[in-house]
Write a structure and sequence with these properties.
11% strand; 7 strands; alpha+beta; 377 residues; 59% helix
């Protein structure tokens, strides 16, 4: 038998029937015994009737009919009660199994691609909790599927753009339309670098998500790493008329990090700040020793902040900025919006160093991106 409702109905009915049978037998026995006791000790019969056998032989048809009637009604009521118990068990079983069937149907719909389907939550008991967990799972699956589709679309877009430029230039050179001048070759080289960078980012992201990203950790001066990356952006800041500031505490100690990976973290954060700022805005990078974030004075960390006075991030978008291929403004072009991988890589690289990363922002008032690096090895 595969139906849970049928199983529950049979169980409830069996329990009710067994209980009623036992109660009927006990009542029948008690009534008979009490009736005989009454006859034996009654005011009229007690003087000359002794012994149960003599008492039973002296019972008249009225008394026997009375006892049989009592027994008969006990069994009739027991049968009626059993039927009512079966009906109540059926209704109760359906009430229990109806939400489970709804969950099963919802699971089938989701498995067939209807990821927006949800189940109704009508109770606060365990079944209601299961329904809420199911809806939460379905929402997570729907979001993951949306990110997957966006991931595929963005990968195609990001790869197709440099390939189109490369193909167009190479075909024009082969047809003799343009000459392979150093300027044209430099443009082709730039596109190959962009394509290579994207593929490297995708590889790093995949390795980081699987926990297979190898770090070449050694003692490094974090201030030196930050200064070196910031200097890479000086020409861009001058070209775009943006103010680039660097503030480093003098008491920053050397720590164990992978220099290339931390440089990649800083590069992605600063590049992100440049993408969301305009002419005249400020971009400020700071680093200091902090003992208030991760365990107090006994476990100090290096706190790095990349702050800008750009357009900021809305409260709805802020929780998702570290998801891969998530763009705050989907209408941004590739040139200004980036591929959407940078902040996801930042998160994984910082966490691979046992650090934390988070962001604070207010729309129209700029953004602050923080990450920590532990001093202890």
């Amino acid at each position: 038998m595969r139906s849970l409702a049928a199983k529950l109905t049979i169980i409830f009915t069996s329990i009710a029937l067994a209980s009623i049978t036992i109660v009927s037998i006990v009542i029948n026995w008690v009534i008979g015994k009490q009736f005989c006791f009454y006859l034996e000790h009654g005011p009229m019969m007690g003087q000359w009737m002794t012994g149960r056998g003599m008492m039973v032989r002296m019972l008249g048809p009225v008394e026997l009919d009375y006892l049989q009637s009592v027994n008969r009604w006990i069994w009739i009521i027991g049968i009626i009660t059993s039927v009512l118990a079966a009906l109540a068990g059926t209704l109760f079983a359906k009430r229990i199994t109806a939400p489970l069937k709804q969950l099963a149907n919802a699971a089938k719909k989701i498995s067939h691609g209807d990821l927006a389907h949800r189940v109704s939550v009508d109770t606060d008991d365990e079944i209601g909790e299961v329904a809420r967990s199911f809806n939460s799972m379905a929402k997570s699956i729907e979001k993951s599927n949306q990110l997957r589709r966006r991931l595929l679309a963005d990968i195609v877009h990001e790869i197709k753009t440099p390939l189109t430029v490369l193909r167009g230039n190479l075909e024009a050179m082969l047809d003799g339309v343009i000459d392979p001048t150093p300027k044209k070759l430099a443009a082709i080289h730039t596109e190959t670098l962009l394509l290579s960078r994207l593929l490297d980012d995708l590889r790093d992201l995949s390795l980081a998500e699987e926990g297979k990203l190898n770090l070449k950790v050694q003692e490094e001066n974090i201030g030196s790493i930050i200064s070196q990356v910031v200097e890479m952006f000086r020409p861009r800041a001058s070209e775009e008329s943006k103010h680039l500031e660097l503030v480093l505490d003098e008491d920053i100690e050397p720590i164990l990090v992978d220099r290339d990976r931390i440089s990649q973290v800083l590069y992605n954060l600063i590049a992100n700040a440049f993408q969301y700022t305009k002419e005249g805005d400020y971009i400020r990078i700071s680093a200091r020793l902090d003992s208030t974030i991760a365990g107090g004075a006994d476990n100090p960390v290096i706190l790095v902040c990349v702050e800008d006075t750009g357009e900021g991030i809305s409260e709805d978008d802020l929780p998702y900025v570290f998801d891969h291929f998530y763009r705050v403004d989907e209408s941004r072009s590739r040139a200004s919006g980036g591929s959407g991988i940078g902040l996801a890589i930042v998160k994984h690289l910082v966490e691979a160093h046992a650090g934390k990363v988070w962001a604070k922002s207010e729309l129209g008032k700029g953004s602050k991106f923080f990450f920590t690096l532990p001093i202890a090895s």
